[in-house]
Amino acid sequence: MGVAARKIGERVAKTKVKWGVLGAASIAVRKVIPGMQQSEYCDVAAIASRDLVKARAAAATLKIGKSYGSYEELLGDPGIEAIYNPLPNHLHVPWSIKAMEAGKHVLCEKPIALNATEARTLVPVRDRAGVKIGEAFMVKTHPQWLRTKDLIRDGRIGELRAIVGMFSYFNRDAKNVRNKPEWGGGGLLDIGCYPITMSRFMYGAEPLRVSGVLERDPEFGTDRLDSAILDFSGGQAVFTCSTQMVPYQRMQFLGTAGRIEIEIPFNAPPNKATRIFVDDGSDVGIKVETILACDQYTIQGDVFSRAILEDREVPVPLEDAIANMAVIDAIFRAAESGKWEKPAS
């Protein structure tokens, strides 16, 4: 590479993408924005709310330069290049479409849509606008998951044959968006999507069929307890998720010669190291691998921003998000039919 080319590359590497945030959702102000503000390639330049007072308060607290009293104003800002969309689930698709039509790249919170059919409506808009859109599964860029993927790929546990997952918390607040079915509330869309996407990630394939059962809250109507089996050509994945059980999370990967366990798979703390337990079936016992403390929202923001700057694929592209929604849809169908269901291709 010549000197001129190196200098151009250095300039690009130092460029930050100017981000705008739609709404002042809890996950945005508590986790995602602070994480992105620590990144090398993100400049969170603006935040919008339907309540200007709320937008200004969030901007002041987080030291964001611009605040808007409507989402439309933010999308009309020519200085904003990318949008982070943490709105309630039922607003993910309509506002992601509006953002793309305004020429903005979009990082949309999971689940990207309420179902796969709705998610597919994003494809022609993305292609027509020529922008990037991805789903905000921050776990897919966390070093503990990348290390686990490497260990499995390298045969540390033999052939991966089974994945076992658990993710739960307790929330019966009637005003919380997670307990409003018309807004896309419920356990499967909120947290069941994590073991689904990471099982697909680890197998590197789509499940051939799925089975599922669920229990609905008699007052809210949302699914509060879900269990599912994903049947892959190379093995199986099973998980349970709940919005009304003791807070807990764990993922295990069992192979023909060993086992790996991720201690805090989904809500990895930004200020504490995380641990992977590796049992390779030998007499040595379980080996603990420590992953240094890192903020997965910082990493997610950096990787997505670099994809924009360098015109690369985003970490969780739209096609992957649609495939994940298809599995969720199939689990809902299986819970109703009592039969194995095949995710729509």
Short characterization:
With 345 residues, this protein is α/β, with parallel strands linked by helices. It has 11 helices and 14 strands.
Structural notes for this entry:
The longest helix has 20 residues, at 318-337. This protein has 345 residues and is α/β, with parallel strands linked by helices. The protein has helices spanning 3-14, 26-37, 52-62, 71-75, 92-101, 116-120, 122-129, 143-153, 187-203, 296-309, 318-337, and strands at residues 17-22, 42-48, 66-68, 82-85, 105-108, 133-135, 160-170, 209-216, 223-231, 236-242, 244-255, 259-262, 274-279, 287-291. The protein has 2 domains: 3-138, 3-Layer(aba) Sandwich (Rossmann fold); 139-294 and 316-337, Dihydrodipicolinate Reductase, domain 2 (2-Layer Sandwich). Helix 2 packs across helix 10 (296-309), helix 5 (92-101) packs parallel to helix 7 (122-129) and helix 9 (187-203) packs across helix 11.
